[in-house]
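TA notes. Do not distribute before section.
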Amino acid sequence: MLNYLSGNTTIPAELPQATIQHSRDAGALDAHLKHLIPKEARCKECNGPLSDPVLITAKSRILTTTGVAEGMSTYRKKCLNCSLMYRYQEWEDGHHNYDDHVILSLHLCPDNKECITDTYCCQQSY
């Protein structure tokens, strides 16, 4: 599973401006998707069929710079041959699935990365 995640769903170091802008525009809380379902239809490891989406929670939250959208549903799919699990990881939609319960709007990520880098740099100078 880690091979698939790191090779296929990793958020690029430099996000496309269109994706960041889309994520910002979706900052109006009503614009967010209500059902976050993995897009994969076939297993990337064995090419087997995937199960129908299975609800993980109907209480996910999307965090944005302007607020919190609540009541999102996150789903998973499972390969019927090798049992590889697929979670919603569609960064192109402008989201980062932190843990199926907390979803970050992608326009938060560059700001968070900058804050973490600044904090790390400051801690290293002591």
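Switch to the second chain here.
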Amino acid sequence: MKTSKHWLCICLLSLPVMATLSGCASTATERFYSLDYERQTKPASEASALAYEILIESVKIPDAINRPQFVVQHESGELSMLEHQRWLAPLEEQIALALAGNLRTSLASAWVTTEPAEQASLPRLRLRIEVQRLLLKPGKSAELDISWVVLDKDRKALRRQHQLITVPVASPQYAALAASVSDAIRQLSTAIAVDIKALQAS
């Protein structure tokens, strides 16, 4: 009888432990997001019409927001990282690729790339991007404070611009927040394309 009571005691004590372990096992699922952009390939017949090259030389982002996790701002102004809402690839890489894709669509006579060719066969413009701030407000807006410099092949600055872009977020879903960042990059791309067209016309 003493043995039966002893085992009963052990079983009862183990129940809270098993419940705790079960709770730890049910973790939230990580979700990954990427920036959307225009995807257009130039047919071989148009290759001869290319007049210049645009090299996206660099994209700089403050360390505080250049993280795999979403960094969001709450109504109190406090910033926090969302461990389970993540960018699929480094943010500077995604911005460069999205910008390149959008510019290819806007500038038909330009070869746009993020990788420099060893020997450029076309006149080259260089583009440097610097993100000053990216505020993600779930369910409200995505705010992009950004500057850019267009340089010639010898790295002489031809244009310096700055823009504050605010895009509303369509819903509280984090996918909608990522979509708003994509829209902000599209607006940025349009502004840069206007700059480059003006340079080519001058």
